[in-house]
Design brief:
It is built from six helices and no strands. It is flat. The model has no long low-confidence stretch (mean pLDDT 77).
Length: 194
């Protein structure tokens, strides 16, 4: 078999590159300070910029002798100066009715604006109107309505029978016709595979 010697668009756009050797990590030499168990002195940038400073601790100031006052506190506040106590004002007494007042037992007599504007008017109640002689009709209803005039009755109509084909024998021969797909795409005989 002859090998395929052509190229594809993907091969032309993405050409293979030579794979380079993997870079080896840089490790400290034997005996260096980074070896396990080794000791060394290191200074960071933060330590070099911000050196440690020591200072004496401030001592609290305490009085030599301090005694708690035992007398009455003689001071005043802004609220006390703004609202002084008025001790000489007599307390207002509640207004109460006299003890001899008696409750009225008669009807309440007073007038309101609505009562004065719309006085009481007595009107006789209307009596319902009833016909003297009313006999119920027992015959058939002979009237007609708009729907009855627009949609007249056509009586009972004969039901339309369904049209069915007559019985005929089923074809047993094979189908010899063709389709549009078969005409547009004719069959190809399988050839040799590349």
């Amino acid at each position: 078999e002859t090998p395929f010697e052509g190229s594809t668009t993907a091969q032309a756009d993405f050409r293979p590159y030579d794979r380079q050797a993997r870079a080896q990590p840089i490790r400290p030499v034997e005996g260096g300070a980074y070896q396990k168990g080794a000791t060394g002195e290191y200074v960071t940038m933060s330590q070099s910029e911000f050196t440690a400073k020591t200072s004496e601790r401030a001592q609290p100031i305490k009085h030599d002798s301090q005694t708690l006052p035992t007398g009455q506190m003689e001071s005043h506040s802004t609220y006390r100066d703004g609202f002084p106590a008025n001790t000489g004002v007599e307390r207002v007494k509640p207004i109460k009715h006299a003890a001899a007042m008696q409750k009225e037992t008669g009807p309440m007599q007073f007038s309101t604006t609505s009562g004065d504007s719309f006085g009481d008017k007595k009107v006789e109640r209307a009596q319902p109107f009833k016909p003297e002689h009313h006999a119920m009709n027992s015959g058939p209803f002979e009237g007609h309505s708009t729907a009855h005039d627009s949609y007249p009755s056509y009586g009972q109509q004969t039901r339309v029978q369904a049209i069915r084909p007559t019985e005929r024998p089923r074809e047993t021969k094979p189908f010899e016709g063709g389709t549009t797909t078969q005409a547009s795409f004719p069959g190809w005989a399988p050839g040799e595979r590349f």
